[in-house]
Write a structure and sequence with these properties.
Blueprint: E1 2-3, E2 8-15, H1 19-27, H2 29-35, E3 39-42, E4 54-59, E5 62-72, E6 76-86, E7 92-106, E8 109-117, H3 123-149, H4 154-158, E9 165-169, H5 172-177, E10 188-193, H6 198-201, E11 209-213, E12 216-217, H7 221-229, E13 239-245, E14 248-254, H8 260-263, H9 273-283
Antiparallel strand pairs: 1-2, 2-8, 3-4, 4-5, 5-6, 6-7, 7-8, 9-10, 10-11, 11-12, 11-13, 13-14
Helix pairs in contact: 1-2
């Protein structure tokens, strides 16, 4: 959930396992690779991440260079993080955050809380904040399946179809700009409709505001992701999208895509991210 007026996020999961078992997934290089990272490396020649170490995690199109600033065995590990994400158009978006993992065992269960700070309050960071909060919600759910069931469901959790847009929960000002009452109507502002993507092909452009997706109201970013998640595994057919553009209401149909240009589900072992960026730049020339 979003906390501190949106400047921080906090996500929690309860896992039926001992604290030391859960701890290793966030405090060792091998643990990160088992539940989330495609590639992981440490500045020191060992598996455990200690205070002063820097761990590099590559998760699909995202690179996180994380410096461990605090470690209390089986209780807390904190990082200063430098992120860089390859966007669908091949551009690079760097940003910094601070993330802490708190572990506490109770009655045969372990509570793992992820607290992220450092989000800016500008609109450019709103997508990072909402995407990050939802990402940790998905990641902790996946960690639970790994620990309790032994199942690696990364593809099922993260590889839902996309529309090829950068979107976030519309602000009151953005809703008013489309002639909507913020107290009665919410939606997702389209910061970027990427050229060649499904939404772009359907005529949506930067500044559009989506209020319904597949017959489901999408007043928040989380609602938008859930609506797309419900399409996972279903036949690839166009879905109805209701949106506003320059104060007018429109209805169109968009066929979501599993193209890794928009899902982010690239394999950095098979294709280095520098090559991913170059490929996406070529794909964006329409």
């Amino acid at each position: 959930m979003l906390t501190n007026n949106g400047a921080s996020t906090s996500n929690t999961v309860w896992i039926e396992a001992a604290a030391d078992e859960v701890w290793r997934y966030v405090a060792t290089v091998s643990g990160w690779k088992q539940f989330l990272a495609d590639l992981s490396s440490l500045s020191s020649p060992r598996d455990e991440i200690m205070a002063g170490d820097t761990v590099v995690l590559v998760i699909g199109e995202l690179t996180n260079k994380a410096s461990c600033v605090e470690r209390i065995e089986h209780k807390l590990i904190s990082f200063d993080e430098q992120y860089e994400v390859v966007m669908p158009d091949g551009s690079l978006w760097p940003y910094r955050l601070q993330t802490a993992f708190r572990v506490q065992e109770r009655s045969g269960f372990t509570e793992l809380e992820v607290i992220v700070n450092g989000y800016g309050r500008d609109e450019a960071m709103q997508w990072i904040r909402e995407c990050g909060e939802m990402g940790w919600r998905q990641s902790l759910f996946h960690l639970k399946t790994v620990v309790e069931l032994g199942l690696d469901l990364r593809n099922e959790v993260f590889n839902y179809p996309r529309l090829g847009v950068l979107n976030y929960t519309a602000t009151a000002e953005q809703l008013c700009r489309q002639g909507l009452d913020p107290d009665r109507q919410g939606g997702n502002h389209i910061g970027t409709a990427y050229p060649g993507g499904p939404a772009w092909k359907a005529g949506l452009r930067d500044g559009a505001l989506i209020v319904k997706l597949g017959g489901r109201a999408v007043p928040t970013y989380r609602d938008f992701v859930v609506a797309l998640g419900q399409l996972y595994g279903k036949p690839p057919v166009p879905v109805e999208v209701v949106y506003y553009w320059e104060g007018q209401r429109y209805t169109t149909h968009i066929e979501p895509t599993y193209d890794d240009q928009f899902t982010g589900m690239v394999d950095p072992e098979a294709e280095p991210l520098s090559e991913v960026a170059a490929r996406r730049k070529r794909q964006s020339r329409v």
